[in-house]
Amino acid sequence: MPLSPDQIAEIEAARSTPRPTLRAVSEGMEAHLYRAHEVLDHGFIRVIDYMGDDAAIVQAARVSYGAGTKHVSNDEGLIRYLMRHWHSTPFEMCEIKLHVKLPVFVARQWIRHRTANVNEYSARYSILDREFYIPAPEQLAAQSTVNNQGRGAVLEGAEAARVLEMLKRDAGQAFDSYEQMLSQDGQQGLARELARMNLPMNTYTQWYWKTDLHNLFHFLRLRADAHAQYEIRVYAEAIAACVKDWVPLAYAAFEDYRMGGVTLSAKAIAVLKRRLAGEVVTQEDSGMSKGEWREFEGVWG
């Protein structure tokens, strides 16, 4: 269970005592505040706080660019213009703070996005809970034969059972040793900061993660993509659902230009122009590498 009964009661108590405010409020995001959105088997994301809304993006852009944006007739058009032309600073006016519970190996992948403020649960001071991520059977897959960092066919039958048993057994044994090493019941034991090194990567950790909307969109573009690892992608998808309610105009532009759009190189543009002119273009005379050509064909045929 991601949240204990006491934590759920604390959340409900906070939501039952709203306070008036003069700051910008997003009704869509208010519905998400504090509530835990479950992810994986023991994880969750919770919106703890946020600043700004679609109007804050527009306000910042008009201050920044002044008369240069007056030809844009409405907020949606301006936001789409900003997204289309890669203007980033107006989107930095919106911020969000999340409470995330996630497996350690997902956290290590997540922390590569170095554009946020992070404070993680400290296993130097506190004893971790006995909670591990154990993949659902449909997520147990072999190594891909075409992608060095991806998954291939789903394991089945005896092989799936063998792997699942090892995951459960090893996690449990490691945590048993962790508990036995700690200073307790009168024995001297080992310091928590050292005992934690024996824990497996599928142990759950927690952190507060605060970032602005511009950098959050970059995170979502990479981690909510179909090619991202499943275990981080489901977190990104849960966050994206909150962002869509928070800044619907900005999120719609993001979906259109980033998630659903394609960036073309100068060589790719040249090939498209030649094709439109009726010329048959091959990889050999395109000026592209085999990898570039494969990606080009994946979008344009």
TrEMBL record:
GO terms for biological process: dTMP biosynthetic process; dTTP biosynthetic process; methylation. SUPFAM superfamilies: Thymidylate synthase-complementing protein Thy1. Pathway: Pyrimidine metabolism; dTTP biosynthesis. FAD binds at residues 89, 112-114, 120, 212-214, 218. DUMP binds at residues 109-112, 120-124, 196, 223. It is an enzyme of class 2 (transferase). It catalyses: dUMP + (6R)-5,10-methylene-5,6,7,8-tetrahydrofolate + NADPH + H(+) = dTMP + (6S)-5,6,7,8-tetrahydrofolate + NADP(+). Keywords: FAD, Flavoprotein, Methyltransferase, NADP, Nucleotide biosynthesis, Transferase. One of its GO terms (molecular function) is NADPH binding. Its cofactor is FAD. The active site is at residue 223. Binds 4 FAD per tetramer. Each FAD binding site is formed by three monomers. Transmembrane segments: none annotated. Catalyzes the reductive methylation of 2'-deoxyuridine-5'-monophosphate (dUMP) to 2'-deoxythymidine-5'-monophosphate (dTMP) while utilizing 5,10-methylenetetrahydrofolate (mTHF) as the methyl donor, and NADPH and FADH(2) as the reductant. Belongs to the thymidylate synthase ThyX family. This is Flavin-dependent thymidylate synthase. It comes from Pseudotabrizicola algicola. The lineage of its organism: Bacteria, Pseudomonadati, Pseudomonadota, Alphaproteobacteria, Rhodobacterales.
